Amino acid sequence: MAFTMHSHSGQFCPGHAKDQLEDIIKHAIKMGYKTMGLTEHMPRTELSDLYPEELTPDPNASLAALMPRHEAYLAEAWRLQIKYADRIHILIGFEGEWIRKASYGPLVKQLAAHPHVDYFIGSLHHTSGVPIDLDRATYHDARDRSGGTEEWLYEKYYDEQYEMLCTLRPKIVGHFDLVRLLSSDPGRDISKKESWTVGRKVVWEKAQRNLRFVRGYGGWLECNTSALRKGLAEPYPARPIAEAWVKLGGRWTMSDDSHGVEQVATNYERGLQYLESLGVREVWTLERALHPELNTTPEKAPLKEKSVSIAEIMYAAAY
């Protein structure tokens, strides 16, 4: 039973992704997906949070469009959830941001309370208020604002991630170690002292702290295969973090983090083989206990956790 818990469309993430949401869902069905989590990016709150493509021709108009677009996304996702209910189990969610605690903490909680929303992904795409996965120039800006070295940037990233985790306790933690994507050494083993110029393990201690916290409240880490299509050797998270998570007994889910039709299920075989190499035999998804057409109340439909064996996904992919 193949699935993803993390996906985007060009319809609701223009400039960031491609294709209409319904076309992506239809393609996922053709690929054999049985469950698909829709997780468009949440609205951002200030002009300083906009990406370069959103600054022209009118940044104020771009910012003003974000919340109505999110509301339109929820309405369309609800329509598609019902339309394709006999072919695929659609979960409605969103990917959170954590640029500033004061504004994003309350907003994520507000958005998550919507009756159509099943879950959200707890993610960081910024550190010290600057994007870390856009390009090297902004990554270096984030590094400089975090103290001037990559070590300080990593520390700041895991501190801000911890703040997000403590405030929101997301069921799924998105791309746990995204900070390595544009670093000078994405394959760096952060658990080793020699990985850092000052020869200390503060970064590793903070990453472990975050893992323990997620494990404590019952959150999941995603095996996010988008790292592979972006040129990294391993999915998010890298092996040292993944091994530490396995030792804690933490649960995994699967995500292609697709940004359009052509990225659905990209590198899933490699991602599943990666988990198997860690000794992982099952991944987890969510299942709605009530068909969306039967849930006529304003309350959320209850969800249950569902285990899926990696062998089952691999077998389905082979046929």
TrEMBL record:
Alphabetized GO MF terms: histidinol-phosphatase activity
CDD domains: PHP_HisPPase_Hisj_like
Reactions the enzyme catalyzes: L-histidinol phosphate + H2O = L-histidinol + phosphate
Statement: the UniProt record of this protein carries the keyword Ribonucleoprotein: no
EC number(s) on file: 3.1.3.15
InterPro entries: Histidinol_P_phosphatase_HisJ (IPR010140), PHP_dom (IPR004013), Pol/histidinol_Pase-like (IPR016195)
Entry-linked SUPFAM superfamilies: PHP domain-like
UniProt cross-references to Pfam families, sorted A to Z: PHP (PF02811)
Gene3D superfamilies: Metal-dependent hydrolases
Residues annotated as domain PHP: 5-226
Keywords from the named record: Amino-acid biosynthesis, Histidine biosynthesis, Hydrolase
Pathway: Amino-acid biosynthesis; L-histidine biosynthesis; L-histidine from 5-phospho-alpha-D-ribose 1-diphosphate: step 8/9
A Gene Ontology BP annotation from the UniProt entry: L-histidine biosynthetic process
One CC-aspect GO term: cytoplasm
Annotated family: Belongs to the PHP hydrolase family. HisK subfamily.
Protein name: Histidinol-phosphatase
